[in-house]
Structures are given as structure tokens and as C-alpha cells.
Amino acid sequence: MGLFRKRKNIYLFDPNSLSYEKFNPTFKDRMYAVIRHLSSGILIAGIALFLFSRFFDSPMESQLRKENKLMQTQYEVLSLRLDRALDVLGDLQQRDENLYRAVFQAESIPESIRKSGFGGANRYSYLTNLPNAGLIISTSQKMDMLSKQLYVQSNSLEELVNLGKTQEERLKCIPAIQPVANKDLKRVASGYGWRIDPIYHDRHFHYGMDFAAPMGTEIHATGDGTVIYAGVRNGYGNCVMIDHGFGYETLYGHMSRFACHAGQHVTRGEIIGYVGSTGKSTGPHCHYEVHVNGRPDNPAKYYFMDLSPEEYEKMIQLAENHGMTMD
Ligand SMILES: [Zn+2]
Questions:
Q1: Alpha carbon of 43 to ligand 1 centroid (Å)
Q2: pLDDT tens-digit profile of 137-190?
Q3: Count of domains in the chain?
Q4: Judgement on whether residues 106 and 193 belong to the same structural domain of the protein
Q5: What is the pLDDT at residue 286?
Q6: Structure pTM?
Q7: Ligand 1 centre and the CA of 305: distance in Å?
Q8: Angle at CA of residue 105, ends 242 and 92, nearest 5°
Q9: CA distance 107 to 129
Q10: Ligand 1 centroid to 325 CA: how many Å?
């Protein structure tokens, strides 16, 4: 053997000649041998790579893992901030419903409308295959809730702005004082509700409030409006009716004298007549009714410019006494 390694000769046993014959491998045989060696090498390398990657991250993998963790933390923070924003919006909705809309007498927005339009599990089905799908779906859902509820809320405020523009006029017109001066509340005889009829002594519904006062006491318009009736009306005697607009009307009965005529514009506090006992009445008093959208309402609800909360309480108690009306 010299410096260069020589190819080994291969001998194969030939059963026919019972001797060893020198074997000369063809190109094909050599290729098979190469492929055999290569594939076993690749297999071993593959197993080694698998085991390595199973226990050790590549730099790129560990970078991605870090980014993924960071992203998850960001999502959690976002989710918490959305919770807080939803809480703040919830407070605003409550104030909107119980204060702003109530003050402007706007119809309330049902919960079903305020909170509708989101949910439905299918809506987020495209996210279900992501890692951390639960967190991502709940965050997306909160975001959708927030934008939907904000939309409803901003519409509500816009509506209130428009109502506010007519509010000044409205406040001047809506009945808001008592029809006769009643400083110590001694003049409330009977209120709205089921009462005993002063003449027939059976129960009947009293649609107004009676203010007992000496004959000739001034009767005032309780809000701005137009006199639509000033004359004798069955049972009510000399009676004045005022249309205040915005669906409000008031009626003042049993007057001794008129101080206005039909078609006249009157302002709150203006004298429209004097206490008397005309019509079906048992003594000098002013029978006062408030109608809202054509239906009688309890006049006690319309003295807010006249009475402090304590006086209001007392007035309600006085008016609630189930005594006889003066009609
Ligand atoms: Zn009455």
C-alpha cells in the first residue's frame, strides 16, 4: 500500500464455477451505495435536530416567544382598560337615564337597545384558532360593546341637546305653581284621587285639586299659554281653560268672576279670575285640573316652582287626606 489508498477489490463466490470471481460493481450499484449512506446520515441528523429543537430554542424562536408574551400582557392590559371604560360608560348611561332624560321628559331608552347588537359566538369564530383565543375574543367583544353603547349614548345626548333648545320655552309654559296664593298651605282642601262626593256622599274620582279660599281671592294662570275657554261649564260653573302647548292644559272652576277671555295670551302668575262657588260646589274654592296629552294628571306634580321639598311633602299629605271634596 502506497501513500494513496487504493480501491479494494471485491470477490464474490460463484456456485457454478465453485470459485471466487472478481466483482466489478456497475455505476448503478455504486449509486445505490451512495444513497444508502446518505439517507442513513440524513436520518441521524434529523433525529439530532429534532431532539435539539425539542429542548433548546433557536434565537428566532426565543425572540418570538418573548414577543408573544409581551403581546399577551398588552392584551391583558387592554382588556382591563376596556373594563374600566365600560364602567365609566355605565355610570354615564345611568345618569343619562335617571337624570338628563328625566329632566327633559324624554322617553327612556330600554336596556335591550342600550346593550343590544353584540355577542353571538359566531361573530368571533375567525379568532378561535389563535393562541390565547379566549383573551383575544373577550377583548374584541368588550371593544365592540364599548363602541355600540357609545353610539347609542351619543345619539341620546344629541336628542337632549335638541330638547334643551326648546326647554326654556317649555319651562315657561308647563304649569308649575298653585293657582291661588297658598303660603302656609292652609288652602288645600282635597286632592286628586278617590274622594267622597260632597252632595251625593258616594265615592267618585276627583280629577283635580280643591283650594278653599275666601270669595274673590285672585286665581292665577299657572303657566304661559292661551285661554281656550272662559264661560259656564256643566258642574264647573264659571270655568277657564288654558292651553300651555307641549301637551299641557289647565282648568280652573267655580269662579265668581272672570279676568280673561277666550283667545287671550296669558303669562304665569297673571290673574285670570276670582274664587267663587258657582256650579256644583259646597263653598268658595278653586277646583284646579292639569291635563297632559288629553288626560287628567295629579296637579300636585306641577307645583315645583312654588314649593320647597318640605312644603311639597306637606302638600301631598294634605291632599291625600281622604276627606270630602268641595267639587
Ligand atoms: Zn274639586
A1: 106
A2: 889 889 999 999 999 999 999 988 888 888 888 889 999 999 999 887 888 888
A3: 3
A4: no
A5: 96
A6: 0.56
A7: 22
A8: 165
A9: 44
A10: 6
Domain boundary among 173, 199, 219: 173
CA of 229 to the centre of ligand 1 (A): 18
* Domain CATH number, residue 263: 2.70.70.10
CA–CA distance, 242 with 224 (Å, rounded to integer): 9
Distance of CA 282 to CAs 24, 39, 199, 206, 256, Å?
Answer: 143, 120, 8, 15, 14
What domain range is 24 assigned to? 10-55
The string of pLDDT tens digits covering residues 55-113 is 787 788 889 989 989 999 999 999 999 999 999 999 999 888 888 887 777 888 888 88
Question: Do residues 244 and 273 both lie within one domain?
Answer: yes
Q: Do 127 and 151 lie in a common domain?
A: yes
Ligand 1 centroid – CA 286 distance (Å): 7
Mean pLDDT for the chain overall:
88
Torsion angle of alpha carbons 269, 270, 276, 279, nearest 10°?
Answer: -100
Q: Are residues 308 and 243 part of one domain?
A: yes
Q: Judge if 37 and 49 occupy the same domain.
A: yes
